[in-house]
Automatic annotation (TrEMBL):
GO cellular component, one term: cytosol
Organism for this UniProt entry: Ancylobacter rudongensis
One term of GO molecular function: RNA binding
PANTHER family: SSRA-BINDING PROTEIN, TMRNA-BINDING COMPONENT OF TRANS-TRANSLATION TAGGING COMPLEX
UniProt key word RNA-binding: yes
Keywords: Cytoplasm, RNA-binding
Name of the protein described by the UniProt record: SsrA-binding protein
Stored PROSITE patterns: SSRP
Protein location: Cytoplasm
Length: 157
C-alpha cells in the first residue's frame, strides 16, 4: 500500500499585522487569477500582502494593492506589480462575505498567499472587525502573559 505524501503549504506572503489590527472572524480560501510571470515570481517568494484589501463592487471579489514583483527573466512579457487581481470564490461565499460587510460593518482582509498541495496559488481571506487602541493593548498584554507563563513553566519543569 503506497502512502500518500503530505506536503506542507509553502507560504509566500503573510499579513501578520492583520491579526493584530483586526479581530479575525470567518476565514475563506480563495484561488487567485494570475499570469504566468506572476506565478514564477510568487514561487521565488517575494510577494507582499500587508497593505492589500479586498473589494467586490461588481459581484466578483478583487484583491487590490498586492505587490508581486516583476519576474526578472520575463523581459517585455512581464506583469504590472500592483495590478488588481480577481479572486476565485463561489457565488454563495461572495454573497456571505458582502452581507457581513454591508450589514455588520466588517471588512475583508487578506491574511496570506500560499501554494496548496496541488501547487496552486491561493489567498486566505478573512472577515474581520477593526480593533480599537485599547483592544490592541489588551491583546498585547494577553500575548506577553502567555509567553511569560510558558517561560515559567519551562524553567520550573
Amino acid at each position: 500500500m503506497a502512502e500518500k505524501k503530505t506536503q506542507d503549504r509553502k507560504v509566500v506572503a503573510d499579513n501578520r499585522r492583520a491579526r493584530f489590527d483586526f479581530e479575525i472572524g470567518e476565514v475563506f480560501e480563495a484561488g487567485i487569477a494570475l499570469s504566468g510571470t506572476e506565478v514564477k515570481s510568487l514561487r521565488s517568494g517575494r510577494a507582499t500582502v500587508a497593505e492589500s484589501y479586498v473589494s467586490a463592487k461588481t459581484g466578483e471579489a478583487i484583491i487590490y494593492n498586492t505587490f508581486i514583483p516583476e519576474y526578472l527573466q520575463a523581459n517585455r512579457f512581464n506583469h504590472e506589480p500592483r495590478r488588481p487581481r480577481k479572486l476565485l470564490l463561489h457565488k454563495r461565499q461572495i454573497a456571505k462575505i458582502w452581507q457581513a460587510v454591508e450589514r455588520e460593518g466588517m471588512t475583508v482582509v487578506p491574511l496570506r498567499i500560499y501554494f496548496n498541495e496541488q501547487g496552486r496559488a491561493k489567498v486566505e481571506i478573512a472577515i474581520a472587525r477593526g480593533r480599537k487602541a485599547h483592544d490592541k493593548r489588551e491583546a498585547l498584554k494577553a500575548k506577553d502573559w502567555a509567553r511569560d507563563k510558558q517561560r515559567l513553566l519551562r524553567d520550573r519543569g
